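Reply to dn_fold:

You asked what the input looked like. This is it:
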Amino acid sequence: QHMDEAKILREIAVEKDADGFSAVNVGNMWMRGGIIPRALPCTAAGCVELLIRSNIQIKGKRCVVIGRSNIVGMPAAALMMAKDATVTVAHSK
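and this is what came back:
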């Protein structure tokens, strides 16, 4: 039997959310000018950090994120938008 990802994510206490997947952290990540999230999803944050350390300007760029998972795709889209990129999310459904 498959686990219910949405149910599991709802159960994460924000105080113990090391990966940035709780509803509070996700909401704060998507809010412009809001509270800074306590944690960011590490893979998405790592992708943005790789671009920054490679001296690739994100602001003003058009970006395609392939996949809309709660773990990588949607957080990557949110973080790229926070850096002022124009983001398109492509998915398989």
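The two ends are 22 Å apart (CA to CA).
Hope that clears it up.
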